[in-house]
Amino acid sequence: MHQRKSKKLLIYFFLLILISSTNNISLNNLEFQKVKNIEVSGLSEIENSLIIEKIKNLNLNNIFFINKKEINDLMNSNPLIEKYQIFKSYPSAIKIMIKKTSFIAKINFNNETFVIGSNGKLIPNNLQATDLPYIFGKPQIQEFLIFKKIVDKSKFSFEEIESLFFFPSKRWDIKLKNNILLKLPHHSTIASLDYAYEFLEDNNIGKFTIIDIRIDNQIILNE
């Protein structure tokens, strides 16, 4: 009985070696296809093509061993990209879907005008973004984005703004497209902006073009 079991185990052992050897030969002879097709969408045709060429220069190997960090670094370095998703299409293609950043304002940086994207990045102003509000002063980009969120949550529309003024004290003023200048308190809030909005809605301010709400619960009008 013991000998029969031993013979069976020996047979199973040889079968296992045979199967393993066969699989190893197959794996050694198997060659994965390299990435042959790259599709990028979401930007202009020219911008998509530029990204495709940069990805090709990464010398991608087969689709199973793509260095995602290299692609991520490439995508994150592009100021026009807000978000992106990478999809693998087996056996040899990848597809990248991009959400383009929104252009929200212009600012001067090192004597050059840039567009600020909603992704918080500076974009060279060669895109004919002429209708965007201009920021005077030197805020950090994140400071501006925080202030914009306050405006967006208020009764004002950001599209009503012609220009913004940022002071070293961290205070903001807003010039509206109807030529009215709003002098805002040091810590601008949704409530303070709504207060100014409701005042403008309820009153005919005539020749006055400056509304000063820097003092709590007071509105000072100036020509």
Global morphology: elongated
Order of helices and strands: HEHHEEEEEEHEEEHEE
Q: CATH fold name of the largest domain, please?
A: Rossmann fold
Mean pLDDT: 85
Q: Would you write up a description of this structure?
A:
By secondary structure, this protein is α/β, with parallel strands linked by helices. It folds into two domains: 37-100; 103-222, Cell division protein FtsQ/DivIB (Rossmann fold), CATH 3.40.50.11690. Helix content is 34%, strand content 27%. It has helices at 2-29, 45-56, 68-76, 141-153, 190-202, and strands at residues 37-41, 81-89, 93-100, 103-109, 112-117, 122-124, 134-136, 161-166, 172-176, 181-183, 210-212, 220-222. The protein has a nine-stranded mixed β-sheet with strand order 6-5-4-7-8-9-10-11-12, with no helix packed on it. A three-stranded mixed β-sheet has the order 1-3-2, covered by helices on one side. A hairpin with a 2-residue loop joins strand 4 (103-109) and strand 5. The longest helix has 28 residues, at 2-29. It is elongated. It starts with a helix and ends with a strand.
